[in-house]
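Usage example:
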Amino acid sequence: MAGVMEKTRIEEFIRFCRERHLNVTHQRLAIYQALLNSTEHPTAEDIFRTIQSDYPTISRATVYKTLELFEREGIIRKVSFPHETAARYDANPQRHHHLFCVQCHRVEDLSHPQLDALPLSKRALNNYQVIDHVVHINGICPACQQKRRS
Amino acid sequence: MAGVMEKTRIEEFIRFCRERHLNVTHQRLAIYQALLNSTEHPTAEDIFRTIQSDYPTISRATVYKTLELFEREGIIRKVSFPHETAARYDANPQRHHHLFCVQCHRVEDLSHPQLDALPLSKRALNNYQVIDHVVHINGICPACQQKRRS
DNA sequence: TTGACAAATGAGAATTGTTCTTATTTAATA
DNA sequence: TATTAAATAAGAACAATTCTCATTTGTCAA
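Running the assembly step on the lines above writes:
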């Protein structure tokens, strides 16, 4: 099931690259695949290490540049959190929000229509031309709540 | 007016430090003052440079450690944004949200009751024990909209 | 007020995350 | 299969932050 899903997304990715005249390289495929496989919002370094087993000569520069490219093309998102120095990446380009565990620094995606509306007038928004928004929720995840109690 | 405001806040700060047995040093006062004076969400480096004219021997280590302390004590907030490597600090510890200009990277505080409610059940929140939340709005500020048009 | 002592600071080294540079390799296409 | 622009690898360079430790300073008790 996940395999089918992945395959479709990878095929879509390849089609997308061709359309934009972006070379479909092993490295790009591996980096995108690594992001699809992870729900952990990995850092560039995480991805670098994940890929290293299959591509021992992969370079950090390639990982960084590729992630930058993917984000510019709108197929992934860069996210960042206070108390974390390294940027994280998210293969889910659709509107969604984040649950951040202040104990273990776990990040979960949260999709909920209630959070997607931004019911403010342009004036209330200081006349900004709004592109999108993300609700960042700080809290304690179930696992860490458990740890605290015991 | 602003002066009066500031003085009160500084006195409050001194009282707060005494209560917690935190030494009231020139450096701590200067750093807190610098944050109060700025609406720009300055970085540690910004603060370091601001203070340098009055305290030529101030050390970056002191600025970083002091900001960390202030945040731990809940009197300021650390905030971070994708595409910005340095963390920023905010002397407004109350719930508020952020307007981020994707062009000029300006950050404005936004307070609005509509954004303060988080109308989701515990289940919808993946059973997280919620502490707080911030709405991060990406957009283009009025000044940059102007620049684009001309 | 002064002296003792813990707390805080300064200076710079070390570490971490990211970007840059350049020679080499590779994907696309003709 | 040859050509060529695009992409990559390797590591240097840079930027942000943390660490180390000797020196200085605020606090508090006498």
